[in-house]
């Protein structure tokens, strides 16, 4: 027996549920199939369980894509304020943490519940634990073979996500479907992911796991000022996660350990005011003591400031302003928050997210080559792209 619907959405994540409820509100008969055992798994774990559901400062500049203009249309037509309105309608309390990042006061479960309630009100059917076995294009739309049987749909929306955090349901299904229907898929890699250090780089930081400090990290022409965390395998923290999306293997990463400070002027001032003080003592007033001590032992010199002549002081200042990090790689998809690359936007309409070559086929959310910064931007892309497709499918 074949189940018929107007719109079939593959993936019950942020983008898929938003698309489904939007299409359902238009009177479309919508069904969502999800391979995981529950919907919205990535939403549930996001933001430490409180879901960083949007960012009030969202704009095209906050996204990485081969076509930086592609996201503009969807983002303009579904803004953070639109999602906040839905959150407020459902009585979900929220707060701004920093840099425009909005979180639930209580639990990310509230966001999933809200989306499912909106889907239910719109008559959307959501099937979980349902694998896709195959998709065939037919005259009247698509035939989808699933673990629950065959589904016929006029429109097919692929919202299956990327490869990040496979334990939450991430897979390459969306990319396989894109290729099946003639779409190019740009190379994928882990984004918003911790960096791994090996060899002497790792040895120099041994024993400092858990130490955090504010830095400005730069790579690939982008810089981010936020916290850096030393881990037992390398570096993490918001500044590192952000810059990882712009870093290519083998490329340098420069970390300003005194962001907002003219390092050379600062050291000269300290040398004049307290020449007998150890450099490590002075730096410990600006960063964690253990980190300052290791920095002086392994990079800057471990002696009183009066023993630094001008060239030595300049070298120390240069190292503090652009502390070189040579990462050997990343922690990979296992811990990556997003997948960079994906379905080439050249083959999609920026207005509807529909395929330019296959009528009724849509790609939305993380499966598309649009990746946001850390801080709620990826959720806003999910809402915006889902809304755009849901108004057209």
UniProtKB/TrEMBL annotation:
Its cofactor is FAD. InterPro entries: BaiN-like, BaiN-like_dom_sf, FAD/NAD-bd_sf, RsdA/BaiN/AoA(So)-like_dom, RsdA/BaiN/AoA(So)_Rossmann. Residues 189-338 form the RsdA/BaiN/AoA(So)-like insert domain. It holds the Pfam family HI0933_like. Keywords: FAD, Flavoprotein. Residues 6-391 form the RsdA/BaiN/AoA(So)-like Rossmann fold-like domain. Coiled coil: none annotated. This is Membrane protein. It comes from Luteimonas terricola.
